[in-house]
Amino acid sequence: VSFCLVGDFDKIWREHCEDEETLCEYAVAMKNLADNHWAKTCEGEGRIEWCCSVCREYFQNGGKRKALEKDEKKALLASKTTPALNVPHTPKIEDPLPNFGLTNHEAMTEEFLHSLGKIRLLDVGSCFNPFLKFEEFLTVGIDIVPAVESVYKCDFLNLQIQQPLQLAQDAIDAFLKQLKNPIDSLPGELFHVVVFSLLLSYFPSPYQRWICCKKAHELLVLNGLLLVITPDSSHQNRRAMMMKSWKIAIESLGFKRFKYSKFSHMHLMAFRKTSLQTTSDLVSRNYPGMLYIPQDFNSIEDEEYSNTACYVRSDTEDEQLAYGFMELPDAPYDSDSGESQSSSIPFYELEDPILLLS
């Protein structure tokens, strides 16, 4: 309520991080939920498995090479259709792809080098370090209150980003294996993958979500991946405009969406870092405000109304209601192709996002 009244999200977040008792209870509950519920009920729709699958497709099975080739073709086509000028063009920071230029040979060489070492992965809001069991990753899990010892304590929102390390790959790997707990700062351009699994909706403010995405861009190497997973149990197109809005906001930082999927209870997106410079044009558009969630629009009156006494269903009524929901159609869709996995109906993204500045 105090956030709604004064909008002091820094103060709210600081007080939240200081409430260690509640945070510890939350961490234990999340681990139990993952171990005892998600592992059993999310067969075929595991968010961790999806992240691993996207990383393998991108880094090991030619996904990155194909994306770079597409960038190169687009740039070549643009150069042919743009009239020649006497003044040479200097890419601005705002240009979406100022660093597309890896040749096919260079891209394949870089991909081969990646295959020799592990993929450096930062799992933000890790809780119980689910990526640690996968051999292809050198994983760093961070959380404000870790549920297991292998996760570092870190407030990502206030993490300090330092200058990139000028070291060989094996030296960078050694650096990551010797991190001190808690983590207050990290060098930029350190990771191949940054994971935001059920993270962004945890923050009370769109601006905080924007800051997280900006930090992720700074921490990723060029052509690294940002994986964003956010909860949503509604049908396919219910949040289409919100997801389009998120896509525009995140891409404005210097990303390009590589993959999109919709599971029964979540949206899953993979973004590729396409520019070394982290752009932050907040003049032409309110990009931070575009990272909204439905809860952002809840009013104080709604909160007060929700606290009033309400009818409580019996266990039998709950079972009947749950059985009724089992009869609903379920047609998840995958990737940017726009095709449903179990339906011929295309998924259309709306062109105009919701802008909070109206």
Automatic annotation (TrEMBL):
GO molecular function, one term: methyltransferase activity
Name the record gives this protein: SAMTR protein
Entry keyword set: Methyltransferase, S-adenosyl-L-methionine, Transferase
Entries under Gene3D superfamilies matching the protein: Vaccinia Virus protein VP39 (3.40.50.150)
Upper lineage: Eukaryota, Metazoa, Chordata, Craniata, Vertebrata
GO biological processes: methylation; negative regulation of TORC1 signaling
Gene name per UniProt: Bmt2
